[in-house]
């Protein structure tokens, strides 16, 4: 029952961590194979707006991502977890760059009298404490909402090109995977408030696509 609580499970490594890439591929496959009268450029613009929301919240917003900024504003600290089950805080900038750190690349960070394992090893610092909005809930909520909306023109069409049948099936399958992933993430990760804020931000990201 704890299989999906392990972040190394295939669902997390191959799908959730690459969720927007899979979502983008499914959308573009659907749009390119759609009946010509449904291939509106406004739908591509909707995908572009959703992609910008994904970028701003999770990766870059004129510097650090919005989620990282919010975690710091609510008391987050940049922490290095050592292989010896110990940790210590460092400057916030190291968490915002997401670079791997080690005694070889950043010896000044490990100058304190610590018992460290023999190199080579490295670690990526993480923001701890603060309000850690669930990025997975955000991304999965936005992806499911966006894909479901993009299926509507296809389901309303009288007939489909043969290749479009495959693209609809692929998108429906992906939506099913995202719904399952949303359930496992909700059960095993984050606090209730962190999941709720992730869900609301996901709806907000999807809402941007409705402005077109």
Fill in the keyword field for this structure.
212 residues, mainly alpha, three-stranded antiparallel sheet, 3 strands
Layout of helices and strands:
Blueprint: H1 10-15, H2 19-33, H3 41-58, H4 66-73, E1 77-81, E2 87-90, H5 93-97, E3 126-128, H6 135-156, H7 162-188, H8 192-209
Antiparallel strand pairs: 1-2, 1-3
Helix pairs in contact: 2-3, 2-6, 2-7, 3-6, 3-8, 6-7, 6-8
Strand content: 5-15%
Label the structural class.
Answer: mainly alpha
- Which strand order spans the largest sheet, edge to edge or round the barrel? 2-1-3
Oligomer: single chain
Helix content: 55-70%
Average pLDDT rating: 89
Which radius of gyration do the C-alpha atoms yield? Answer: 20 Å
Q: Say how many strands there are.
A: 3
Q: Write down the overall geometry.
A: elongated
Low-confidence stretches: none
How far apart are the termini? 43 Å
Q: In this structure, how is the largest beta sheet organized?
A: 3 strands, antiparallel
Topology as a string of helices (H) and strands (E): HHHHEEHEHHH
Tally of individual helices: 8
Would you give an account of this structure?
The protein has helices at 10-15, 19-33, 41-58, 66-73, 93-97, 135-156, 162-188, 192-209; strands at 77-81, 87-90, 126-128. It has a three-stranded antiparallel β-sheet with strand order 2-1-3. By secondary structure, it is mostly helical. Helix 3 runs antiparallel to helix 6 and helix 6 (135-156) packs antiparallel against helix 7. It is built from eight helices and three strands; from the N terminus they run H-H-H-H-E-E-H-E-H-H-H.
């Amino acid at each position: 029952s704890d299989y999906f609580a392990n972040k190394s499970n295939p669902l997390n490594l191959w799908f959730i961590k690459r969720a927007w890439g899979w979502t983008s591929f499914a959308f573009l496959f659907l749009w390119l194979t759609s009946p010509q009268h449904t291939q509106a450029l406004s739908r591509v613009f909707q995908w572009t707006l959703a992609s910008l929301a994904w970028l701003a919240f999770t990766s870059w917003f004129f510097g650090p991502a919005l989620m990282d900024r919010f975690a710091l504003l609510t008391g987050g600290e940049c922490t290095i977890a050592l292989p010896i089950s110990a940790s210590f805080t460092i400057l916030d900038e190291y968490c915002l760059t997401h670079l791997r750190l080690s005694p070889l690349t950043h010896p000044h960070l490990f100058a304190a009298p610590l018992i460290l394992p023999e190199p080579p090893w490295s670690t990526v610092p993480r923001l701890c404490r603060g309000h850690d909005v669930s990025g997975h809930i955000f991304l999965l909520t936005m992806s499911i909402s966006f894909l479901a909306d993009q299926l509507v023109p296809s389901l309303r069409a009288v007939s489909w090109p043969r290749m479009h049948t495959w693209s609809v099936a692929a998108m429906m399958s992906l939506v099913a995977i995202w719904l399952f992933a949303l359930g496992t993430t909700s059960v095993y990760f984050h606090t209730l408030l962190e999941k709720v804020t992730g869900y609301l931000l996901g709806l907000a990201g999807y809402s941007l696509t409705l402005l077109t």
